[in-house]
Amino acid sequence: MRQRTTIFTLVALLFVFGTGYVEADRYQPSTSWFKCRTKELKWPRKGAANKLPAYRHLSSVEGDFLNFSYATDVRYKLENQKLLVDTGNGMEEARRSSLKLELEFPNGDKSRVSFEFFEPGDEEHVASAGDKLQYRIRNPQVLSFNVGSVNMLLIDSNVNGSFMDRGVDQFAQLSAKDFSKNEFDFSSLKLQPFRWWGEFEADKYTLFAPGKRGGLLKCELTAEDGYSPDIAEAICELNWQRFLVGAEAILPSTDLSNLLEKHAAYCAQEGLTREQDPEKYLYDRATASVAKYSHVCRARDAAKGIESSMSTLLGRNMLLSDELNTFGLALVNNIFVIGGIEKAWKDDFRQFPVNGQVDVPLRYVQEQPSALRKGQENYSGSVICFPADRNSVVESAVLAKYGEEGGKPLSVSTPSDPPHGMKDVAPNNRNAITLISEEPLMPGNTYRVTIKYKRSSAKDEVTELTWLFRTKEAAFR
Predict the structure, then answer these.
(1) Residues 152, 145: contact at Cβ < 8 Å?
(2) CA pair distance 101, 56, nearest whole angstrom
(3) Of the residues 25, 328, 457, 475, which has the fewest C-beta atoms closer than 10 A?
């Protein structure tokens, strides 16, 4: 049987698939996840491995303190060419070659991690000329595993003490033996951001992804599940986006997908629309009943269709809704359709982005009804949403780059307002405060949102909320 191995260029990873369609018992896709065997390896004391880009500089970001991911507490301090460590009982000079630290992230997760650290002047542990001039840390281990017959090595390249962290770690095809014995040329080793990995055969494909509590999982889906490789990629992209906001993973429905395939054919003849005209030749009553609760766009492949849907307010809210327990999707003549569940389409706006979210879209694709001001042509970034009482009053709202003062100009709308600037339209903010940046968001940047509001009346106390998110590394095209 002919076999093909493929790496998909997704930003990040699918964590766990759900069990799928609940609304119709006749279609219940089956998935089984198995934990893959992995092995942690210590770095060789000397040799080529120490030249790999696995170091993080202990450089100053705010004054003399290291800004470690989102954490801003005092944990390290560089003073008089010495490295001081926060032990919990004050700052003490680091006297060992390893450190342990408990990190707390914006979503409340805590992780106790270990690091090796190297002093300036150490020329053995360097990946670039500038390394030897600074204090630096490294995860003391790498992760080795096999995907089929391929030997893989995973490096904690962003050095936060954990592996498979939202697609920012690096991996390469290298065996544990060659790594440990330094039997490789580091200059020719091609490191890539870790993506989900697919092995495809004639009648099935196997997906490899990280487990929710660490480790690597694999799942085999057979051809009877109806997933071609391009659709499988779209399913993974959707479930990654749902994972980021805490929504459960889901699988598509064959019944809904068949109906939306008919609607894509309708759009190919009549133009992009969610509605069907009963007078048209391709009108189908069953198709029309689900198509009006779907997102329709042009896309060269299904994964790009997911990205386009996530770059609209209504499409995004549907795909991330807890009411979405399955969905249909279809791609016909570069017309992509996804959705079909009424409760999900009409669901209240959920918080987006959530605290600590990564991979947030930089711009919006036009949709009807528009969340942007009527006639606006320049789209300026994600519409930020936060659920609130219908009579909430916003005192202030600020969107600023993390670590910078001030903020970007914002258009603010409350649950009782019509869509931004559309006074002739009934309120459509679906029980949420929405914010639109007047200026484009920059790729690969961390932003802080701060909202002060009163829940229902002027007599209520002011509630202040603040959270962080990070934008995509590149704009959607």
Answers:
(1) yes
(2) 15
(3) 25
Question: Which residue's entry shows tokens 């054919």?
Answer: 265
The arrangement of strands across the sheet holding 294-298 comes to 294-298, 335-339, 328-332
What pTM was estimated for this model as a whole? 0.71
- Residue 81, phi then psi, degrees to nearest 5: 65, 20
Q: How confident is the model at residue 208 (pLDDT cuts 50, 70, 90)?
A: low
The token duo for 79 is 């003073």
Across 59-85, average pLDDT: 54
Task: Evaluate whether 322 touches 248 at the Cβ level (below 8 Å).
Answer: yes
User: Is 118 within 8 Å of 83 (Cβ atoms)?
Assistant: no
Give the burial string for 220-245 (b: 16+ CB within 10 Å, else e). Answer: ebeeebebeeebbbbbbbbbbbbbbb
Q: How far apart are CA 318 and CA 347, in angstroms?
A: 7
Give CA–CA dist 191/172, Å, rounded: 5
Collapsed DSSP state (helix, strand, coil) of residue 396: strand
Query: Cα(62)–Cα(405) distance, rounded to whole angstroms?
Result: 13
